[in-house]
Amino acid sequence: MTDLTNLGIAAIRDGVAKGDFTATEVATAFNAAVAEANPALNAFIVTTPDHALAAAERVDAARAQGQPLGPLAGVPIGMKDLFATQGVPTTAASHILEGFVPQYESTVSQKLWDAGAGMLGKLNLDQFAMGSSNETSAFGNVISPWRAKGPDGTGDNAPRAPGGSSGGSSAAVSAHIVAAATGTDTGGSIRQPAAFTGIAGIKPTYGRCSRWGIVAFASSLDQAGPMARDVTDCAIMLEAMAGFDAKDSTSLDLPVPAWSAGLTDDLKGLKVGIPREYRLDGLNADVAKSWDDGIAWLKDAGAEVVDISLPHTKYALPAYYIIAPAEASSNLARYDGVRYGLRDLPDGAGLQEMYAATRAAGFGPEVKRRILIGTYVLSAGFYDAYYTQAQKVRTLIARDFENAFQQVDVILTPTAPTSAFALGEKSADPLEMYLNDVFSVPASLAGLPAMSVPAGLDRSGLPLGLHLIGRPFDEQGVLNAGLAIERRAGFTARPEKWW
Amino acid sequence: MSVAPADVAKIAALARIKVTPAELDAMVPELNGILAWVDQLGEVDVTGVEPMTAVIPNQLRLRADVVGADPLTGGNVRDKVLANAPAAEHGFFGVPKVIE
To answer: Residue A59 belongs to a domain with what CATH number?
Structure first.
């Protein structure tokens, strides 16, 4: 039998349905792969082999009885540890939630289990999803399976960042220790890690996936989405994750399109915009080349390429780093040592001292930094100058996209300004880390669907991603352009197994 | 705009995060670096521009006025609510004494 861990969602589902192998065999193979790799990659905070096996046994039993199988029947996935999972610890990679065991299941994870998927474990991430390298987790760095090659072809072996915040997800998918994984994206947390590890990931239109049961970071930006080995698997998984949920007041009350059935790489008549403001001074040469490759591939697929302007692009990142911390400072006020999670009660402390001590002990440095920035920009005397100004700029950024989408159907950019950097390379300067999200943040601020697909390797053998941004609700357009790139890029590179 | 150590101490107090003097000293230049960078937003002409309130136009809904319509959020789950509390007592959240 072929190694079952080399199969993605569609192949596993179809193989289980046909009886080529059982769901239990698949779950067993992935559980073993997780157990072997996790000590080296640290992709999981908690592993749940029993959950994966139990789900697989239900699928096998249903198949034996001739019952219909779900769209993800027998597919073992990883769950970013930002989703509340009933009876399984949920930490958001923070000490402040250590020991927290949800009494309920998030809407998105429940939908995945209902579709027949099983859970291999809870995936590591940047603490409260705040970071671009997975270096802010209280449970240690995730190590990317990818390593750079020097000019002489030998590796430098420096541990590389898997991207962030969904770094456990990206590392696990690219190492083939999960068939796919959930991610969440606030400013690029699905797309940038997908680009860094040579996988596909899509953030749908804001409101497509319910936020109920997802640990909140910045509520006007947070969206869940799939991270998988290819575009087709992303489409299948997103169909299972999306859908209206009355428990999320921003959930879109719209039917879920059959994205996987609608996939086509025939882009005849499609107009693709290339925003000139994304061609930054000093753009990395390999990134610029892969962008040019992407343009050529989309033309080859029948698309017409159009130069466009998104004039407020340079203001997206600073606006994001006001809005996201402002919302975070409000959302994270709930961690008070009273209702759940950590409590630090110094001798003789009153309630206020307990709050302050608990939050000092529980939050990591990046989380504190963002809470403080957020508190500052929302405080009396500064609110209008920072927060209101940023929200006005956000309107202008959204308007830039609206104008562009009168001319074009989809926008192509690089996903990130570089390939994966080495761990520690950017962690000393918060600002330098923030700049890594320069291409992904504008689409987040406008709530647009956007995805990253692998485009090739740079000169050091590390993956580069291409980024597609679509109109609101047009995940199909994004997925189809992604598929056209995927089929022409022929990206088959895999990290060499060193773990 | 920039912040002095006293400003950061005040923000930290508002945010209910205890900071040591050493942490405070480290945070001041970091926050000033970030604030100096976001100050560029001041260059943008926003005359007549409304601040964004919702990225995707959406109607806010009211749920049906029915007690317990959704069993997940409808109440009568006291023990589940308290299950993760660090100091639940007698069916309540326990906190340090707040009345002298």
So the answer is: 3.90.1300.10
What is the CATH architecture of B5-42? Orthogonal Bundle (1.10)
* Nearest-by-Cβ selection for B38 from A321, A352, A372: A321
Question: What global pTM score does this model have?
Answer: 0.97
| Residue A422 belongs to a domain | no
CA-nearest residue of chain B to A339? B85
Interchain CB contact of B99 with A (< 8 Å): no
Instruction: Identify the H or E element spanning A4.
Output: none
Q: Across the strands, what pairs with A255?
A: none
Q: CA of A230: how far to CAs of A335, A344, A496, B72, in Å?
A: 37, 45, 19, 35
| In chain B, where the domains are located | 5-42
Structural domain boundaries enclosing A135: 4-265
The partner residue sitting opposite A101, judged by closest CB among B11, B17, B84, is B84
Query: Is A478 in contact with A469 (CB distance < 8 Å)?
Result: yes
pLDDT digits (tens, 9 = 90+) for A266-299: 999 999 999 999 998 889 999 999 999 999 999 9
Beta strands per DSSP E along A207-284: 223-228, 271-275
Distance of CA A179 to the CA centre of its chain: 15
Task: At A299, list the tokens.
Answer: 């033309």
Let me know if residue A160 belongs to a domain.
yes
| CA dist., res. A47 & res. A91, Å (int) | 13
* Chain B nearest-CA residue for A354: B96
Domain contains A48: yes
Other Cβ atoms within 10 Å of A492 Cβ, number: 7
Distance (Å) from the C-alpha of residue A21 to the closest C-alpha of chain B? 37
Q: What are phi and psi of A149, to 5 degrees?
A: -110, 140
* Complex ipTM value: 0.95
Give me the number of domains chain A comprises: 1
